[in-house]
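The protein record reproduced below.
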Amino acid sequence: MQLYAVAKRTDDDLGINLIRTGEIYGLQVDLSPKAIERAVAANPAFDVDKVSYELARYDPETVTLTTYPLNLVSDSRYFLTPKYRKVRSIAFEGHGNVFAGPGDVSLEFPDLPLGFVRDMFAGFGVNYEYRFIIEQLERTASASAVVMSEYFESKIDDDVVHLTYDTFDRWRRALRRSHNTAVSFANRSKSVYLRGQVEKELGLVSGAHVAASSLDELANEMTEVLALPGRRRPLSAATAAIASARSGSGKLAAGEAAELLDLNREIELLTLEQLIARLEGHLASNHNEAFWQRFFTDNPFILRLAFGLPIAIFGEQVAVGGTKFDGSGGKIADYVVKAGHFGNLAIVEIKTPQTPLLETGAYRGEVHAPTKHLSGAITQALDQRYQLQTSINDRKISSGVFDVFSFAMQGLVIAGRDPTGPAERKSFELFRNGLKDVTVVTFDELLAKLRALHEFLGTPE
């Protein structure tokens, strides 16, 4: 066993040692006399031989930090006991490297995801406000270990729960919104109560009238906060707002305008929910390329998300080597789109979610080469771009279309699912980010973009 580094806390001299055993690095708690004195004062039954000292392990081969969350408050009766009832470990695939650089040791963990304790002297684990996630995994899934996984979907193996980083982040943000909404409601209820009491005591207005209206208002707010059935927001104002808008009067009252905006937001959310559900269902099936081309034709909004720019589909199944944009012969692109506001064209190639992106076997070490399917799709997009650029002027004249340009044509390839293992994800990211003129996006990433947009639209302002 080798000792690499030691860190100490100033208030009680508690130490944490970085040690190496074989190929594994570990963080061990090193008790000081002052910390022991505090622990015994808080808990006379404290026994240094019956507590846990292991705080974390780092495996450089799998790039995984496994933490064993402990209570490290030395003047607490729970000092050096596990933070959670059942869950004993939380692992982070692809995070927690203890080496900041060649030969440099770092005992700080800023790369851990949001929602997790990054300070080792705080004992790791989740931030206190998100403890409900761990508690629910213990109750519902009987989890004793959590792995923050690089898989593209969450799963459970016996008592080990694999959560994707996206899943945890979605839950974390939902809890944060719920907390903020509840606090806002509580503050509102206090204000309403005190207003009624002040007006009643000072004789400013009838107390009974205030109480009735306040209770009804609070009931509606509480129902909205908790999303309870049985009491629905009146639609009469929204209906009136729509009627006013259709009449072209343009004289919407402030309340009507607000109702109309709320209704529009609800419709957008519902439409997104349906689109997300359809995409999730299609991903579970083995559809061919023609199906996915039709799907994106019917839902061009997804292509706009993929580009991150406003786009318009210029043509579907466009011949890029003929004499006209709708001519026969030559190369055929799945889509030619106008990206941005300047009419600049871009090539889109659609594959299927089943398209393999990386070779199964490693090329060397942990490096995985792209498959012929992926490299072929990229080369195809580049060749289609070349064909279109060389003939763009003649074809604009032949087709009578002059508001499109090929200044800096980009290519987009939509193919495959997210790689699962850390080595595969690293190889995929290195490969696609090294491309100059073609962007590769997986179907899982498109689904994640839709979910992120839905969450953004559903976030209270």
